Amino acid sequence: MAITVLIVDDSKLARIVAGKTLAALQPTWERVEAANAAEALKILGERKIDLAMVDFNMPEKDGLELASEIRASHPTMPIAVITANIQDEVIAQARAMNATFVNKPLTEEGLRGFVSGAALRLRSSTA
Amino acid sequence: MLTPTISEVLDELELDTLTELVNIGVSRAAVSLREMVGEQVHLSVPAVDLVHRRRAIEILEGRESGPLVAVHQVFEGDITGRALLIFPETKSLELVRAVTGGELSLEDIIELEQEALAETGNILLNGCLGTIGNMLHRSLRMSLPEIIRGKGPELFDLAPPPAASEVVMFLHINFTVRQRNISGYIVMLMDIPSLTVLKKLLGELIQRETDGMAP
């Protein structure tokens, strides 16, 4: 079955870069974009999303709050929190909710671990 | 003279890219500050606007009515401007106390204040501008940090004003260290000629990052 990735970032450039980087690693995965947490939650309520890539520093609700809400409704979904803000507390919070931490600016190398891990998990859960 | 709006100078994606660039720069700098104070540093989302110098002063004074202390550095290169790390004066000793580890007496802290502020500002502002310069593929020369005390006009009406322009790009971000009751701002001021160059550099960055996939 087709895999759909939700990309959440308030920056359009960052969403383009995330989409491009993801396409280089997994060209067949479908990509859906949201510009903020509210939009992301709306999309999650409307359609099947298999994994999420969430920016940390966004207006209103930040990426860690959003990730924890997604985690509550999607206990096994692979979630990546993407940020240049690698403070210990931010990384620890991402880990505590079982989200992967990915450094910004996003590169194929940086995203590869999350994407390969997610692909394995999704394959085993649908097998 | 009417102040042009930022959207007349930068298109939507350029402005988006600038905000994202600053976000990444300040996020990196916050990591250094976190290492120095030992507590999490919270950041706001950057606000970028094109304003009259007077308006920049009003914005700052609207948020902070008391005396301020700032670490100021000039950056020069293809783009020229000023970067400031600004705190309410009441918070500056608290910052110095956090950075020096809280072992020192008040007298020592007061004596060290100037030096510790300059050093902290230097690390934060260099971290932020260094990241921005790297991503734009341009190197920026930074002046030595200088401490300024006063209110909005003293901080933003520095002589000589960059070029003669009265309209500046005003970019600010708020940061807080909640456990230490420290908060402040990182502000960048740029004049219009630099903004024209910046527009070109942002265009090149967008091209590189998106491989022309951007609309």
From the spread of the alpha carbons, the general shape of chain B counts as: globular
Parts with pLDDT < 50 across at least 5 consecutive residues of chain B: none
As residue ranges, the low-confidence spans of chain A are none
What strand order characterises the main sheet of chain A? 2-1-3-4-5
What is the helix content of chain A?
40-55%
Biggest sheet of chain A: strands, sense, closure?
5 strands, parallel
Major sheet of chain B, described briefly? 8 strands, antiparallel
Work out the radius of gyration of chain B.
17 Å
Main interface pair? A-B, 23 and 26 residues
Give the tally of β-strands of chain B: 8
What is the first-to-last residue Cα distance of chain A?
11 Å
Mean pLDDT level of chain B: 86
Secondary structure tally, helices of chain B = 7
Beta fraction of chain B: 15-25%
**Order of SSEs of chain B, N→C?**
HHEEHEEHHEEHEEH
Oligomer: heterodimer
Give me the secondary-structure category of chain B: alpha+beta
- Assign a percent range to the helix content of chain B: 40-55%
**Element string of chain A (H = helix, E = strand):** EHEHEHEHEH
Overall 3D shape of chain A: globular
